[in-house]
């Protein structure tokens, strides 16, 4: 069983921990997480599925083979500085911190430290995550393999150059919020037209899941799949006309662009 430590115990750390346990990669008793006293609520939640908790980052490093850095960008350098004396060649650091480049993290750790960068998303908690990873200058092939194994255990995993990570964060990292907003809007539309809320919400969820499953399993272009649902002069065509008048495609693309620009702003500070 892998001994995994989390530097940070927030929602994303919890999502990964739950996913790792559910996939059988490890057990709760082999997990440990740290957070400051102000985040005791997160530590209590982490403890609820069997993990150990502490306020001491060094304790996490001393009791783990793999360290997952899951803190806010502003806290990265101070957290890494706190474990520098405990970080050895036997450790692998996997960072999921938004916007923090590998080079920045390597400079905070002893020379030739093994660092990987990953960008998962919250559906990892239910085994449906979408992750992208890349390796640092001293990462070994086996480090890439173990990181891929961890992320594949909670969904899909692709490798990509670090230069793409701001866009990845904006698309798949933030994407669940965009999709949930669209599901909510579909449900609202059903309620407006007389459906009970629970029925409207369940139909919206299953319709979204079904469309995504179709897109994943088909080699056809998305536009071809969309056309297959759109009969001439039908109700779908009428609905799509309203969406196109409202600029739905441009709006969503602009959301990804805005989120990417925000990631770039964060990256530039550190």
SSE map:
Layout: E1 4-7, H1 11-23, E2 31-34, H2 40-47, E3 52-54, H3 57-62, E4 66-69, H4 76-83, E5 92-95, H5 102-108, E6 114-119, E7 129-135, H6 141-152, E8 155-159, H7 165-173, H8 175-192, H9 197-217, H10 222-229, H11 235-245, H12 248-269
Parallel strand pairs: 1-2, 1-4, 2-3, 4-5, 5-6, 7-8
Antiparallel strand pairs: 6-7
Jot down its keywords.
single chain, about 55% helix, about 270 residues, alpha/beta, about 15% strand, eight-stranded mixed β-sheet, 8 strands
Describe it.
This protein starts with a strand and ends with a helix. Helix 8 crosses helix 9. The protein has an eight-stranded mixed β-sheet, sandwiched between helices. With 270 residues, the chain is of the alpha/beta class. The longest helix has 22 residues. The relative contact order is 0.10. The protein contains twelve helices and eight strands.
The chain-level structural class is alpha/beta
- Given the C-alpha coordinates, what overall shape results? elongated
Poorly predicted ranges (pLDDT <50, ≥5 residues)?
none
In spatial order, strands of the major sheet run: 3-2-1-4-5-6-7-8
* Most strands sheet: 8 strands, mixed
Provide mean pLDDT, rounded: 94
Radius of gyration: 21 Å
Report the helical percentage: 40-55%
Order of helices and strands: EHEHEHEHEHEEHEHHHHHH
State the end-to-end CA separation.
35 Å
């Amino acid at each position: 069983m892998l001994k995994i430590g989390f530097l940070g115990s927030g929602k994303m750390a919890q999502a990964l921990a739950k996913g790792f346990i559910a996939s059988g990669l490890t057990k709760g008793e082999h997990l440990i997480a740290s957070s400051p006293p102000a985040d005791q609520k997160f530590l209590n939640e982490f403890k609820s599925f069997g993990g150990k908790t502490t306020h001491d980052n060094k304790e996490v490093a001393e009791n783990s083979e793999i360290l997952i850095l899951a803190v806010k960008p502003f806290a990265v350098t101070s957290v890494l500085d706190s474990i520098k004396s405990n970080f050895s060649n036997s450790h692998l650091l996997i960072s999921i911190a938004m916007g923090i480049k590998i080079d920045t993290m390597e400079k905070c750790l002893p020379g030739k430290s093994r660092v990987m960068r990953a960008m998962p998303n919250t559906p990892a908690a239910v085994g449906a995550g979408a992750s992208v990873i890349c390796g640092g200058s001293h990462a070994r092939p086996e480090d890439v393999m173990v990181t891929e194994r961890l992320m594949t255990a909670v969904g899909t995993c692709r490798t990509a150059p670090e230069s793409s990570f701001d866009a990845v964060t904006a698309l798949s990292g933030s994407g669940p919020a965009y999709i949930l907003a669209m599901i909510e809007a579909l449900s609202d539309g059903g309620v407006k037209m007389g459906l009970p809320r629970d029925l409207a919400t369940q139909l919206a969820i299953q319709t979204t899941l079904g469309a995504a499953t179709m897109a994943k399993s088909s080699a056809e272009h998305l536009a071809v799949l969309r056309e297959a649902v759109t009969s001439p002069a039908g109700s779908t065509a009428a609905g799509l006309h309203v969406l196109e008048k409202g600029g739905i495609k441009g709006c969503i693309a602009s959301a990804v662009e805005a989120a990417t620009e925000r990631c770039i702003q964060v990256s530039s500070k550190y």
